[in-house]
Amino acid sequence: MVEMDKLEPVRAFIVENFLFGRSGELSDGQSFLESGIIDSTGILELVTFLEKTYSIQVGEEELIPENLDSISNISRYLRSKTSSTSGV
Amino acid sequence: MTSGAEVLRIDPAAETDRIVASIRHLVFNDLRRRGAVIGVSGGIDSSVVAFLCARALGNDRIQILFTPEAESSPDSLRLGRMVADSLAARWAVEDISQILAGARCYERRDAAIRLVVPEYGKGYKSKIVLPGVQDPSRYSIFSVVVQSPDGQSKKVRLSPEAYLGIVAATNFKQRARKMIEYHHADLLQYAVAGTPNRLEYELGFFVKNGDGAADFKPIAHLYKSQVFQLAAYLGVPQEIQERRPTTDTYTLEQSQEEFYFKVPLEQMDLCLFGKNNGMSAVELAGVANMKVEQVEQTFKMIDSHRKVAHYLLASPKMVE
């Protein structure tokens, strides 16, 4: 898993754009889909944010909840995408 | 085992009588209007609504409108005319191209596409599509398919700005149509009929204050396959009954599955029916001839679409 403090930009992005500043409503294991936090347009914004922030390309086949549906899932996914030397 | 066709089967004669009585009451008694305006697209839903309104109110108390624009399929007008001629009803053509050009609909849409396809321009055609049609487990992230004037096609994933820009621009089309329908409704003191079916209404497959706006919606309670059953009973022209639903919104032909539903409409119908009637995924998989996992994913997709529909269906909120 990517260290949770390295995911702070993701957490901040989600709180700012989808929870309108209410950080207490987001936990790491919480499913975005099931809790209705992020819809399909929101996933597009999240993917664009991840690509820009972490310098990765999210492939079509990677656009699945297992990779993107919670802070925890994103952490695992980013770990698989980025090298250990990047420190992410 | 019960088949999909059996679970959605209705008695078309009885259902027609019920809807017709309801239309008469809604239009004459409740809304106190003298007839109905129906925007007919040449598709099955608006055709069925036109037939139902003619039966309920009389063919002299309906006004059929065709609202083509520069990018409409010519089939839409041709098929719509078949409906009007079948019903011997009044019809009018109101081309909305100039309204759309004035609102810079086409210009805004093309500028949005150029955010991801810089060469997009004159002579190009396009549509937006979801990945993994028939794969509801994948996120619904849109790409644009563009076709150059020499016939070359490519698919590019949309950025959020591009996606929102394209949708916001193309939504002008449905809103302009509704503006014209209400103009005629004002002239004639008629009510405007909405034409969404249950899939579209419940899952938010409409434009807010565009095709989502109406004074009454006579088939919003019917699953798509039930609309087809009524069409056959009412005598809607055969070619319309057999036509595959399209959106007729983009310059490349786009199916409703590509744009919104992701699984074939027949299966989407059954999954929505199953969810609304408390069927388990295992039960429904047998009926719909789908894998259990596919049904489960489609159930999740329905939940997701319903969340979108919440905003689209919401009435104006008042400060108490």
How would the blueprint of this fold be written?
The complex is a heterodimer of chains A (88) and B (320).
Chain A: H1 8-18, H2 32-35, H3 40-54, H4 65-68, H5 71-81
Chain B: H1 4-7, H2 12-30, E1 36-39, H3 44-57, E2 62-66, H4 74-87, E3 90-93, H5 97-102, H6 105-114, E4 125-129, E5 143-147, E6 153-157, H7 160-188, E7 191-192, H8 198-203, H9 224-234, H10 238-242, H11 256-261, H12 265-276, H13 281-288, H14 292-313
Parallel strand pairs in B: 1-2, 1-7, 2-3
Antiparallel strand pairs in B: 4-5, 5-6
Helix pairs in contact in B: 2-3, 2-9, 3-4, 3-9, 6-7, 12-13, 12-14, 13-14
Structure explained in plain terms:
The complex is a heterodimer of chains A (88) and B (320). By secondary structure, chain A is mostly helical. Chain A has helices at residues 8-18, 32-35, 40-54, 65-68, 71-81. Helices cover 51% and strands 0% of the residues of chain A. The radius of gyration of chain A is 12 Å and the shape is globular. Chain B has two domains: 4-101 and 166-313, HUPs (Rossmann fold, 3-Layer(aba) Sandwich); 105-165, no CATH class. In chain B, 52% of the residues lie in helices and 9% in strands. Chain B is built from 14 helices and seven strands. Chain B has a four-stranded parallel sheet, sandwiched between helices. Chain B has a three-stranded antiparallel sheet with strand order 4-5-6. The interface between A and B is medium-sized, with 15 and 17 residues.
